[in-house]
Every structure is written in structure tokens, then in C-alpha cells.
Write a structure and sequence with these properties.
Structural class: alpha/beta
Strand content: 15-25%
Radius of gyration: 23 Å
């Protein structure tokens, strides 16, 4: 069991690229993670990691071990999880990788009642905008929108099935600059843009009566989508410009009168997100409980 613990520590450090970040993921300390890797290297008689003050990288031997280790440890976890089926209540850790918008707009309605029903499950949610391989990075499942889903994954609808993008601005901005009547008029306005993790700018898309168009507006502020959206919202409320984002994200500010809808008849709708996971024969008990809970919340 000690060797299994050390192997798991090595895999976490290798994936996270450092002892401190691995310790945060594992709920341990950097010194304990370092001790575990050193014990493993001593037993194997080979160095697995190159360590500098700034980075940790795999040696050739470490890379070969990690390649074989990930699926093997996954099988071990699946085997141990079979015992969960004999418990009165599901228990264990469930790791999800989700977009920041899903953590903000979808999970708050699901997580509290799920954890109340299953108090022996520890749910770990990592929110980020980069596309990850949930299997390779040790997650049980993820949440993504349809265009970003891998074809070989099993999917379950989660959250609202239809969402919209919305444009909005503060009353002060609209009083000063006027209200655009057509999406093309946004080119004459200060717009608060967003950039994907890939580096691409987020085009503003609109649709009405079968007409679809995309606008590439300019303005004084560009934020990372999801990661710094709150900054753009605050700027919009302060009168800096027009914002374009998930309607659900902007709705509280609209309802309070801090923002006003802009071009509402042009707001485009799109399908809601999906929970996705690999289609293996035995699902971890915490994941199976979460899937059943999500399905039970659908209307």
C-alpha cells in the first residue's frame, strides 16, 4: 500500500509539473510529495524527475513509467471501488474538470443538494478554460459544451438545455453613447472583448429571423473568458462599454438595473452543457451517484 501511495504521488507531481501544485491537488504538503517520489526513486534505483528551482520535468524513465502507470492505477482504483457497492452509502472522491461558466452558472444548483444526499463523497471541482484530457489528467468526468466534446465520451445533459448570449451596457453608457439598433452599429461603440485560452478573440454572434451575423467589435478592454469575466462585468456596470456574455451571468445585474439589455431581439441561443465521462464498464461509485443525481434533476 505504501508503494501504491508513492506511485500515486509521483503521477500527481508529474501531471501537475511541481510539488506544490501536486500537494494542493492531493491535499498534502510539498515535502510529503517530495519524500514519496524520493522513496520511489530509491526503490527503483533510477531518477524519475529532473528538479530545478523553477520546474519539475520527467526523465526518460519517468515518462515511460507514467505512460504505463496511469491506466494501471485507474484499474486499481476501479477494482477497489467495487467494494463501494457493498456500502450503505456511496463514498470516495469525485473529481470534475469544468469550464468556469459551468462552475458559476450550473453547479451551484446541483452541488449543495448532491453533497447533502451523499455526505461521504468528497467532490473536487477544478474550473478552467483550457481543454483537458480528463482521463489522462486523473479526472472522473468533465463538463463541456457540445462543440468541445470528444466523440468517444458518454454524455449526460446537465443544467439548462437552452442558453443565450446577451449584450448589455450601463444606463450611463447608453445615455452618453446612444443605444445601438443593429449589431453592425457595435463597431461604433466601446465594447468589452474576451479572449479564449487558445488566444483567439471571442466573436460576437447575433441572430434574428433566420439572419445570422458575427461582429468583431473593438474597445478599451479585453479579458480572459471565464477567468476575468467579472472584471469586464464590473467595467460594464461602471459605464466603460458594452459587454457580451452568457445571459445567466449578466442577468442579476440586468434585474438590479445596473445593466440594460442591448439588441435583445438579436441574442443567439445555443444548447446547454453536458456532463461527459469515458465509457468504461465499471464507473466509480461516486461518479455513478452523481450521474443518477443529475438525471433526477432533469424536468
Amino acid at each position: 500500500m505504501d508503494e501504491l501511495t508513492d506511485l500515486t504521488a509521483f503521477m500527481t507531481v508529474a501531471r501537475e509539473g511541481g510539488f506544490r501544485s501536486a500537494a494542493r491537488v492531493a491535499g498534502s504538503s510539498a515535502s510529503r510529495m517530495g519524500d514519496a517520489v524520493r522513496r520511489l526513486e530509491t526503490r527503483l534505483g533510477v531518477r524519475l524527475l529532473h528538479r530545478t528551482t523553477r520546474s519539475v520535468t520527467l526523465t526518460d524513465a519517468g515518462a515511460r513509467l507514467l505512460e504505463r502507470l496511469a491506466p494501471a492505477l485507474s484499474e486499481v482504483r476501479s477494482a477497489l471501488d467495487v467494494v463501494n457497492d457493498f456500502r450503505d452509502r456511496p463514498a470516495g472522491r469525485l473529481r470534475l474538470n469544468v469550464p468556469i461558466a459551468a462552475a458559476r452558472l450550473v453547479l451551484p444548483r446541483i452541488v449543495p443538494p448532491f453533497l447533502a444526499k451523499y455526505p461521504d463523497i468528497c467532490l473536487e471541482v477544478i474550473a478552467e478554460e483550457r481543454l483537458v484530457d480528463v482521463v489522462a489528467e486523473g479526472y472522473d468526468a468533465g463538463i463541456r459544451y457540445e462543440e468541445r466534446l470528444a466523440q468517444d465520451m458518454v454524455t449526460v445533459p446537465i443544467g439548462p438545455r437552452v442558453q443565450r448570449f446577451a449584450a448589455a451596457a450601463s444606463p450611463a453608457y447608453l445615455a452618453r453613447r446612444g443605444r445601438p439598433q443593429h449589431p453592425r452599429e457595435l463597431l461604433d461603440h466601446d465594447c468589452l472583448g474576451g479572449r479564449f485560452a487558445s488566444g483567439a478573440l471571442h466573436a460576437w454572434e447575433f441572430e434574428r429571423d433566420g439572419e445570422t451575423l458575427s461582429v468583431d467589435p473593438k474597445g478599451p478592454l479585453i479579458v480572459g473568458l471565464g477567468t476575468t469575466t467579472d472584471l469586464a462585468v464590473d467595467a460594464a456596470v461602471a459605464g466603460t462599454g458594452i459587454i457580451y456574455d452568457f445571459e445567466d451571468w449578466l442577468r442579476p445585474f440586468i434585474d438590479r438595473g445596473e445593466l440594460e439589455p442591448v439588441l435583445e431581439s438579436w441574442w443567439p441561443s445555443f444548447p446547454g452543457p453536458f456532463l461527459y465521462y469515458p465509457g468504461r464498464h465499471h464507473l466509480p461509485t461516486p461518479l455513478r451517484a452523481f450521474i443518477d443525481f443529475v438525471k433526477s434533476m432533469r424536468p
